[in-house]
Amino acid sequence: MALIGAVILLSFLVSVLLLRGSVQRSRRGHLPLPPGPKGWPVLGNLLQVGPNFHQTLYNLSKIHGPILHLRLGSVDFIIVNSKAAAETMLRIDLKFSSRPRTSATYHVSYKQQDMVFTPYGPRWRMLRKLCAVHLFSNKAMEHLRPIREDEVTRLVQKLSRNSSSLVDLSKEIHACATNAISRVLVGRRVFEAGDKAQEFKGMIEELMILASSINIGDFIDVLRWFDLHGLVAKMKKFHQRFDNFLERLIEEHRAGLTETGSANGDMLSILIDLANSQGNGDVVALTDADIKPLLQNMFIAGTETSSNTVEFAIVELIRQPELLARAQQEMDAVVGRGRLVTEGDLHNLPFLQAVVKETFRCHPVAPLSLPAWSPRTSRSMAI
Ligand code: HEM
């Protein structure tokens, strides 16, 4: 019985896929698409998506040109592999500022109510404006500078205290980046380099694996309901854990604010103030349902990216001692041995700047931009 059921289900799936494929082919036939490699029926170019997808795309663009088309299952992707073309497309069509819906963006990112994945519109503008003003503006960067410098000083002092023993540098750098960001976001260091820090690092790593895994249901509609790899179940579980973590932070922060009766100037205090206000003009009153996704965005986007980049820079300098010696000579000449290097020294350290730029070039932690999507064309565009 079970076998007959399975055969009926399978033949139903195959016919739906073939029907859908032919409908889509006839629709697609009317649309001018850029060139691209030929794909398989139903799967399209899915089999070409390997672990180093960015390198595959680079190689394909050498054959097909800087703007190419891939079909992953039933989803069309336009790959824009040139800075000029990407800028033009984003400038001429703001509607491409939305992001496609995938199981990860939906189940992990609060049903796309966060800043990164929310569709283009008033909410998109309001959340970005909040971050642009309070986190990324020159004024905010300067205001937050003592926090970054203090966390780096703590790291360097800790390393120098333990200079004769083995240190897990990766763990320490990650704790440093996370604490710097948590102080900016919620006004306090959330992690010491102990079990809690490891647990948080583990959560971010788990998310990276979940978000970069191919969920076949995202590309072949009819399979969406089956969660064949069990990824959706894992995403929901992950989301619950991260949501609990943020909930705890907000509760603790609210309790602290009540005690002191004043805001601390960190991002969460600003967001809570806005949540207590009625909202005005472009900025609408926020609720916890807005605050949590925003904090999640920053914790996820800002911690692993920063610490991995620093780690890569150090690995490269260790692998190339002549470059390390040059960087040290430059710092000895400009800063001397009597104090630590500060952000104010950076413009006098061109070699160090070159090391940073070269690290971004050789080890981009996010080699592909986040995909853009236009509801008007229903096509995805990766840049
Ligand atoms: C070495 C450090 C970092 C690297 C290499 C990096 C890289 C990137 C890249 C490549 C993107 C995708 C851009 C796009 O597709 O349009 C991105 C987006 C983003 N990053 Fe970073 N990032 C870093 C640090 C940070 C930090 C420290 C924060 C915040 C505290 C942050 C917050 C964000 C946010 C919110 C987005 C989404 C922007 C949007 O949707 O418009 N990043 N980052």
Can you tell me about this structure?
- This protein is α+β, with helices and mostly antiparallel strands and 383 residues long.
- The N terminus is likely disordered.
- A hairpin with a 2-residue loop joins β3 and β4.
Key features?
6 strands; about 5% strand; 15 helices; alpha+beta; binds protoporphyrin IX containing FE; disordered N terminus; 2 domains; globular; four-stranded mixed sheet; Cytochrome p450; two-stranded antiparallel ribbon; about 375 residues
Rg for CA atoms? 24 Å
CATH homologous superfamily title of the largest domain = Cytochrome P450
Main pleated-sheet profile: 4 strands, mixed
Helical stretch tally: 15
Strand-pairing-aware structural class? alpha+beta
Query: Helix and strand string, N-terminal first?
Result: HHEEHHHHHHHHHHEEHHHEE
CATH class of the largest domain: Mainly Alpha
Bound ligands, named by name, code or SMILES: protoporphyrin IX containing FE
Mean pLDDT: 83
Report the end-to-end length measured between terminal Cα atoms: 49 Å
What CATH architecture of the largest domain would you give?
A: Orthogonal Bundle
What percentage of amino acids are in beta strands? 5-15%
What is the total domain count? 2
Signal peptide: 1-18
Organism: Vanilla planifolia
Cofactor: heme
Keywords: Heme, Iron, Metal-binding, Monooxygenase, NADP, Oxidoreductase, Signal
